[in-house]
Description:
alpha/beta; FAD/NAD(P)-binding domain; four-stranded parallel β-sheet; about 30% helix
Amino acid sequence: MAEPKRVVIVGGGFGGLACARALDGTDAAVTLLDRHNYHLFTPLLYQVATALLDPSDIAFPLRRAFRKSPNVRFRQATVTGVDLDARIVRTHAGDEIGYDALVLASGGTNNYFGNAPLAEHSIGLKTLPEAMRLRNHVLSCLEEAEQTRDADERRTWLTFVVVGGGPTGVEYAGALDELLDLVLGRDYPSLKRSDARIVLVEGLDRLLGAFHPKLGRYAEETLRRSGSRSEHRRWSKRRTARRSRCGAARRSTPERSCGRQVCGRPTR
Ligand SMILES: Cc1cc2nc3c(=O)[nH]c(=O)nc-3n(C[C@H](O)[C@H](O)[C@H](O)COP(=O)(O)OP(=O)(O)OC[C@H]3O[C@@H](n4cnc5c(N)ncnc54)[C@H](O)[C@@H]3O)c2cc1C
């Protein structure tokens, strides 16, 4: 009897998971590799980053997904290289995994449009650890704001800048607004919602550039009604950890002091 074809899938995201499911129950011997042991449901990542959902609500164990499969096996490993001639995948642990067919579904990376300071000073929103870091950071800002007696400093701690007016930036700004509505004046009795600001910075002249303009206008209007502001500027490369300078559109606006920066930007 012929040996089963060995299929190695790198990445248990939407692409890799769909591929492994399609091969489940076939004659192929499938090895699914991912650096994490869970599949991440990215569309709800912004809710974890705003403490509205728990991490376990959007992370599904990959082993459980295939525990009844006769031919798909999951292995947690970070792939460090592929030898296409020898048909071998190399992992961080120094293992070599042979294959007959290779599926690379390792996703993309954050795109900062060449703005290195932005990458350095903001917190991304693409992975579960980033979402949890963001959530903890926002909660720390609220704690700092509650403890200071200085009104200017309090406003600084309560100013959140979201960079990128695409779907993730808009969703995050909306959910952050919801969180602030829920906790300011209640869990943080000395803080007023009116002291907090969410500034959504977008380089294009409208939000949700990939969608119909009507949707962009609707998102902007909805955010404005709830107290968030969107500013259409390019994010300048000249900025420091606690100060944000927005370039382009309105040059007369002075440098502003911002509590924290958050990034919701495209993937590349
Ligand atoms: C915050 C956010 C919200 C989104 N919302 C939506 C939405 O509402 N609707 C929509 O259609 N799309 C949405 N997207 C886009 C969607 O998540 C991507 O298009 C989709 O995840 C791409 O699937 P993928 O399988 O190519 O990559 P991914 O889902 O990114 O999966 C890649 C996998 O590869 C693994 N991996 C990477 N490198 C290695 C390595 N070296 N070794 C081992 N494993 C590795 C990663 O751990 C990951 O599990 C959103 C994205 C983000 C970040």
